[in-house]
Amino acid sequence: MEENIHDPAFVAALFDRCSARYRTWAQVASFGMVALWRGQVADRLAGARQMGRIAEGAVGPAPASRPHIVDLMAGTGEVWRHLDRHFPKARITAVDISPGMHARAVERLHGDRRGRITHMTGDALDCPVPDGSADLVISSFGLKTLNPEQQAVLAAEIARILRPGGAFALIEASDPKGWVLRPLYRLYLDGILPVIERLVLRGARDFAMIGTYTRAFGDCARFAEALRAEGLTVSMMSHVGGCATSVAGIRPIAPQREGG
After folding, report:
1. What is the pTM assigned to this prediction?
2. The domain containing residue 171 runs over which residues?
């Protein structure tokens, strides 16, 4: 029977197997691009946060110095050091479906960061975070594991947990259709990377799933529409010819009604 690559149990098991090698292998396999892209999505989140201050044509007060950030599909917390550049005092709630990734992230906590991060092992599609409690939502490289229906559910969850004026940013490896170098990119993901993984990681085929996932995912365009359907403002960006795409935006502040 064909495996359902979007089934939450399949995804959790996949990342459990990957968890011990995830940090190193992801960096090597992407030639360091994942770190660059995580930095860029943190930058996009900071920019969207400033846009969230605008209501009724006026700029509101400076945002809280200790925002609550929800990191969905958080993995081993690789985006946190990038968040620290913009939000050094932030409280972070990290949500991930994989107990293995969760455990690896806990091992890596150190210094003052230990007291600022709460871990929740759970499904981002049924996010264990209260309504309107997040100032900011971020996610890096988990979106591709969701099919279109699941993406719509995630968009609704982001809208639910964000407070009015709150900002979000997500980035995902994508399939750069129309890019002149796409044939080489696909050759690497679909042909070369699986061979390297089998040789280096003793027959493993887990990281090579990125080729399968990016083909099925395409890019962030469908997810951007799902976010707009939830009333969020959204802008989409392409990175390195479309090898990654990102979305960022805000939950608008509703205008005040006269007499309200």
Report:
1. 0.89
2. 8-250
CATH number at residue 144: 3.40.50.150
Is the CB of residue 214 less than 8 Å from the CB of residue 174?
yes
Report angle CA 103, 14, 236 to the nearest 5 degrees.
90
CB atoms within 10 A of CB 240: 14
Spatial distance between the Cα atoms of 95 and 74, rounded to a whole number of angstroms:
6
Q: Measure the CA–CA gap between 118 and 113, rounded to whole angstroms.
A: 10
Backbone angle region of 235, left / alpha / beta, with phi > 0 → left and psi within -120 to 50 → alpha: beta
Bridge partners of 54, per DSSP, are: 59
Burial class (CB in 10 A: 0-12, 13-18, 19+), 188: middle
C-alpha span between 168 and 241 (Å, rounded): 23
Q: Is residue 228 part of a domain?
A: yes
Half-sphere exposure (Cβ direction) of 94: Cα atoms closer than 13 Å? 25
Q: What is the DSSP string of 128-183?
A: -S-TT-EEEEEEES-GGGS-HHHHHHHHHHHHHHEEEEEEEEEEEE---TT-TTHH
- 49, β-bridge pairs: none
Specify if 255 maps to a domain: no
What is the number of residues in the chain? 260
pLDDT tens for 224-252 read 999 999 999 999 999 999 999 999 999 98
Residue 133: pLDDT band (50, 70, 90) is very high
